[in-house]
Batch of 4 targets.
Target 1
Amino acid sequence: MCSQINFCSCLSAGTGRSRGSSTMKFWVMPLAGAVLASTIVTLPALAEEPATQPAAATQETAPTVSVVSATRKELSQKVIVTGTLVAREQVLVTPGVEGLKIESLHFDAGDRVEEGAVLARLAVDTIDVLLAQNTSQLASTDAQIAQARAQITSAEALVTQTSLAFQRGQALVGTNAIAKDAFDQRQLAADQAKAQLQVAREAFSAAEAGRKLVEAQRAELELRRSKTEIRAPRAGLILSRNAVVGQIASASGNPLFVIAEKGDIELDADVTETLLPELEVGQKVTVQPSGSATTVAGVVRLVQPEINAATRLGKARIALPEAKDLRVGAFARGTVEVARSEGLVVPVSAIADNPDGQTVQVVKDGVVDTRKVKTGLSDAGLVEVTEGIAEGEFVVSKAGTFLRGGDKVKPQVVTDAGTKTGAGVKG
C-alpha cells in the first residue's frame, strides 16, 4: 500500500492543489475506504448474476401459440350453386297465318293470361275477299253439277231408246224385213248413246270433285281467318312481347309472345361435377336472387344426369314459389343443405392434410402432441372431428406451422370472436 503522502500527492495532481496540504491528507483516507468497501459489496452480486441468466433464456424460448377448444356444435353441410332464373316451361306464341298485318294488341309483358285469351288480332280484309271469291266458285261448281246431272238423265234416255231399236233390229236379222245397213246404224246409235252417258257421268264426277276442292279452299280460308285471333295456348305469365301494331306477322322471326306456363319460374343452376352427387330431388334450397335483399325458399326438382364435357359442370333445376323479385334471366345463388350433424368441431385451419391422413396438434400441459383424426361435415370455417380428440381439449388453431410433437409452447386460447384469453392454459 502506498504511503499516505504519496496517495495524497496523486490526488492533488488530479485536482491541481498543493501536495503539502495536510488537510487533504486526512480527508482522502475516508474516501478511499468507502470506495474499497463498495467494491467488496458489489463483486459478489456481479458474480451471482450469470447463474440466473440461463433459466430466464430457457423460459423465453417457448413460443406462444393460439389454441382453440374442441367443443360440441351442430353443423350443416351446404352446397353452393349459381345459375339463371328461367321459366319452368316456356311457351312461344307465333302467328298461325303469315303475311297479314297485326291490327291490335291486347296484352303486354308482365300480364297474366288464361288459356285461350286473345293476345292480338291480325287484319282479315284480304281473307274476306278470298272468302267472297270462294263463295262464287261454290255457286259455279253447283251449276256444273246440276248441268252434269241433266246430261246424265238425257244420256240415259237416249241409251234406252237406242238399245230398244237395236234389240228390234236383232229380231229381224235373217229376214228380208231389215237391211244390213239399217241394222248397223241401230247398233252404232246404241253404242254412241252409251258413250254419251259415260261422258255425262264423268262430267258429273268432275263437277262434284271441283266442288269439294272449293269447299276445302273455303275451309282453309276460314281456318286462316280464325287464326287471325292469336290466342294464348297455355295460361301463364307473359315474359316478353315482340309484336308491334302494323307489323307483318311471320313465323320465321322472333315469337310474338313468350309465356311462362302457369307463371312457374325456377333456378337453372350450375353444379360442379364433384358436388353433383350430393344433390337429391326434394332437398331444400335457399335462393338469393341478384339485386334482391330477400331470399326465396326453393326445392330441388330435377338433377340432370349429364355432365358438360367442356365446362365439367352439371345442371340442377330448383323450383321456386311465386315471388315479385323473381325475374327470368336474372342471376341467382342457391344454398342447398345436403346433411346435418352434431359433434366436436374445430376450425378448418387446425386440420393438416398429410400423405398418411389428417392430423391436429393438441396442446396439453404446454407440450404439443400430433394426433391423427377423422373428419366429418364442414360448415362456416368449422369441421367436425369424429375421431382423435376429446371434448375440451385444446388444439393449435393453425396447422402446418413450425411446431412438432413434443415441442413446449405457451398456449393462448382464441375464442370464436377471435379474441385471446389466458396465456397459461394447460389443457
Target 2
Amino acid sequence: MEFVGITVLFFDEKVNSVIHGFTPVGHANHYMPSLKAGSIVKVDRFEVSRCSSMYKITDHPFVIRFISLTIIDEVITGAPEINLQSR
C-alpha cells in the first residue's frame, strides 16, 4: 500500500455534523506532529471543496484540505468535550 496523505474527521458541535478533512502526502510530514489521536485542534487557512463521491467518508458534501498556509494549533483549555461513544 502507498501512503497518500492523512485523513481527519472534523466534528462541528454547533450543527452536529462531521466533515472529512485531508492533507496530501506532500504536506503530511509538515502537519503530522500537530495531529495526535484524540486531540482537539484549531485549524486556520484551509481549502474547502466539494467532496468527490469516490473518496466520500461522511455525509457532508464538502471536504477540508490542508494547504501550505494551513495552521494547526492544539486546543489545551476551553475545548469542548467530545463523547467518543457511539450512539
Target 3
Amino acid sequence: MSEKSKKPQKLKARLPRGFVDRHAGDIRAVEEMVAKIKAVYERYGFDPVETPLFEYTDALGKFLPDSDRPNEGVFSLQDDDDQWMSLRYDLTAPLARHVAENFNEIQLPYRTYRAGYVFRNEKPGPGRFRQFMQFDADSVGAPGVQSDAEMCMMMADTLEALGIRRGDYVIRVNNRKVLDGVMEAIGLGGEENAARRLNVLRAIDKLDKFGEEGVRLLLGEGRKDESGDFTKGAGLNEEQIGKVLFFVGIKNYAESADALAALVAGTSKGAEGVEELNLIGALVSGAGYDSSRIKIDPSVVRGLEYYTGPVYEAELTFDVTNEKGEKVVFGSVGGGGRYDGLVSRFMGQPVPATGFSIGVSRLMTALKNLGKLGQDEVLAPVLVTVMDGDVEAMGRYQRFTQALRNEGIRAEMYQGNWKKFGNQLKYADRRGSPVAIIQGGDERASGVVQIKDLIEGKRLSGEIEDNATWREARVAQVTVPEAELVETVKRILAEQAEDRARAK
C-alpha cells in the first residue's frame, strides 16, 4: 500500500492520568461551597488575593532543584531565560513570595484568603489526583497565638456555615514546641536525632489507625501487620515510650496540663509551647467554643517539619462507609498551623505567620454524604421551539428567548434541524426543559404563542392511551397573547417549584 493510500490515524482522546474533567453538577457544588466559605472569611476581616499557577522553582522551598531537571513532587519547565518554573505545589509558598516581594506596601498583619488549584507530580491512585483545589486563609505578621486561636474559631464557623452540625466535627490543636520538648525530654533533641524524631512522628501519626498498642510497637522494635510485613520501629526504650504515649494519650488537656509541663520542664521551648496551648484554650473557651468544638489534642502531628508553633486539624467525626463496606470516621478535611520561617526565607528577618488550608474536593465529598450540597437544583432552560425558518419568524423566536432571559429565566432557542419538530421535543425531554414555547404560522398571524408545561405534560401523558386522545387533549398546553408569554412562564415555573417542594 502506498503512503498516499494510507488512512490517517485518528487521534485517541485520552484524559491524562491523575486528572479529572469536571461537570456542571460538581462545578456548581464547588461554587456554592466556596461562596459560603468566603462569607465567613470576609466576616473575620480577611481579603482575597490571587497568585499565579507558576512560581520559580526555588520559591517553592521544599522542592529546590537538585538535578538538571527539578521534578521531585512538582511539574516543572524551563523558561526562555533558562530559569526553572514549577506549577505551585500548595498555596502557602506563593503567598510567602508575594508578601516578601510586596512587603513595603502590605499592611501587617496581612489577613488574606485564596482558593485555587495546586499540582502534585506524584503517582495517582484511588481518590488521589495530580490536580486539586485548596482554599487557604492566612494571617502574616501576627506573632501572638491569638491569631492561631482565631484561625481555629474561623475553621469551626466555616464548617457550621456549610451545614455541618456541632458534634459532627472537631478542631484539634497541638503545638510543635511541645512535641519538640517531649523529644528533647526523652533524649532525641538536636540535629543528630532528626531521623529518629521523624520515625517517632510517623508512629504517633498512626494512633487513629493502629491504636495505642500498635503505636507502642512502632515506637519500640517495630510492628508486623496482618500480611506478615514488618515495619521497623523507632527503637525507643520503655521509659521513652511511656513518656511519648502519655503525651499523645492525653484526653482531657486541662487535667493533664501540669503533668505535661513537668515532662517538658527544662527543655528549650517545651514550656513555652504548653503556655501557648493554655492561652489558646482560654481564648477559645472565653469566646464560647467548648472542647467539643475546639480541643487541645497532643496526637495531632500534621506536617510538623513545616510548622514552628501551634498546629490544628479540622476533623469530621461522623461515620461513612468505605470501599470495603466498613464504617469509618470520615476524618480530616483541612488543617494548618504557624509557619514563622517561610516568609523569612526571602527577608532575612523574622516574619511570623499562621494559616490553614481546606481540601475542597474532600470537604465536598463530606457535604454530599450529609446531603448538604447541591440541594438547590438548577433548572434546565425553557426551550423556544422553531416552527419556521424565515427571517421574520426567527427574529420573533429570538425576541421571545431574550424576553425570558431578561426576566432572569434560563432560556434557549432551538439550534438544531428545526424542520423535524418531534426532534425538538425529544431534545427538550433529554435536557429536562420545564417549558416549551411554540408558535407556528397560525399563531403568529393571531399574535399568540402556545406554552407547554413539559413536566405536567409528562405526568399526564401516562394517563392517555392512544395518539388520537393525545392530539385532542393538547396535554398541559395553553395559548396566550405574546405579551403574556413571560408572566405565564413565570406562573408555570412557580407551580412546578411548589410541586417539587411538596414532593420533598
Target 4
Amino acid sequence: MNRILVTGANGFVGRSVCRTLAANGHDVTALVRRAGTSAGDAHEWVHNGVDFAGLAEAWPRELVPDCVVHLAARVHVMNDTAADPLAVFRATNVEGALRVARAARERGARRMVFVSSVKAAAEFDGGLPLAESMQPAPDDAYGVSKLQAEEALWQYGEQSGLEIVIVRPPLVYGPGVGANFLQMMNALWRRLPLPLGAVDARRSLVYVENLADALMHCATDPRAANARFYVRDDQDLSVAELLRALGHHLGRPARLLPVPLSLLRAAGALTGRAAQIDRLTQSLRVDDSRIRETLGWTGPYTLDEGLAATARWYRSTH
C-alpha cells in the first residue's frame, strides 16, 4: 500500500484516479477546494488557496504521502480573454505545481507524478508519432506553461531528490467528458450532417480509466522514477473513424459529408475557426512504447470499450 495525495481530485480525471488507486488498496487523500466533491474512497483535504498559496503552512501533520499525483491545472482555454494568458497559465501550472512539489517533499514525499499534456510537445505530429526524445515545440500559452512546469519540476527534483514522473496524455475521454468531445457526441445525437467524411488525419486518444491505471503505475512502480511517458489507447483513429465508432455506440449513425480539406480550411479562415479546423484535419499521434516497455503497462480497456462506456453514459443522460 502506498499513501498517495491527488490534487485536482474532484475533476474529470481526478475522480477516476482516486477510484482506481483506492480499488487497488492504496491510501488516497484528495486535495480539493470544496468539501464533498471527490470520489468516495478518498480522505479529503480542503485547501482553497489560489494556485496552492499557503499549502505548506496548511499541510496536515498526519499527512505523510509517498507520492503526489498532480492533476490540478489551468486547462486549455479557447478564445482566452486574459490580458497576458501566459502569465495566468504560469501562475497555476508552473508556480502552483512547484508549491505542491516543495510542500510534499518537506513532508516526506519521495515522488511526484506530474500530469502534463501532449500540447507541451506539439499541436500536430508532423508525420511521425510524438516520442519523448523529440524536441518539444508547444503552440500556445497552455502548452508553453506545461512545458515550463515540466522543466521547473525536473530542476527541483534534481536539487531536492524528489523523483519526478511526467505523463503527457493526448485527448482524454470517458463518462463525464466535456468540451469538444461532448460537442461531437451532441452533434451525432442530433443527427447533424458533419463535413468531416474526407478527413483522414489520425489522432491518439486515451480513455480516462486507462489514464488512471497508467498514473497508478507511474506513482507506485520504482522503474518509473525520473521518466517521461506518453500514454494512449491501443489504436489511433481518424476523425471520420472516431465519429463512425461513436455513432455506432450511440445508436446514431454518423452522417458524414466528404467535403474537401481545402474547402474546410477556407471556411475556417473565413469564420475565424482556422485553429479548430487545423486540429480536426492534422494528425496528432503519440508513441507510447516507452511506458509499455519500461513498466510493462497495457491499458486495461480497448479504445472500443472506452467509446462504448462513454456512449452508455451519454445515452443515460439523454
